[in-house]
Amino acid sequence: MTPLFASGDLVGTFNSRAKIGNVVVMDLPNYGYVLKRLEQVRKKEVMLCSDNKEIFSSCCGVWQSKNHLIGKVLFKINLNSKASIKLEHSLQKLSGIGKKITSKLC
Question: Looking at the DSSP assignment, which residues form a beta bridge with residue 28?
Fold first, then answer.
């Protein structure tokens, strides 16, 4: 999905009604999690496409069940950015707080 997304980017999704043109995450059998753009939408199926036209993806151009749709991508965080370092520190703090609470409850 380059140039918009790079390998290792962290994305946030929301399980909402996705529309043609939205970037989505799907958990496809034989592929795992994929990040693709919706090209067509039917009642129970979607067809995916990739922004990177230089690389062929066999999960694109075929109908996929909507049951595998995780959600529409709302945002991304480049894991090489300063924001990701701040996020990592915040998650570590939250993890530490969670451990303290858990030990008090036990």
Answer: 32
Which residue bears the tokens 């999960």? 59
Q: What pLDDT shows up at residue 76?
A: 84
Segment 19-40, tens digit of pLDDT: 999 999 999 999 999 999 999 9
Q: Which domains are present in the chain?
A: 10-78 (2.10.109.10)
Cβ pair 20, 67 in contact under 8 A: no
CB atoms closer than 10 angstroms to residue 64 = 20
Question: How far is Cα 12 from Cα 26, in angstroms, rounded to an integer?
Answer: 13
Residue where the block lists tokens 């996705």: 18
Distance of CA 18 to the CA centre of its chain: 13
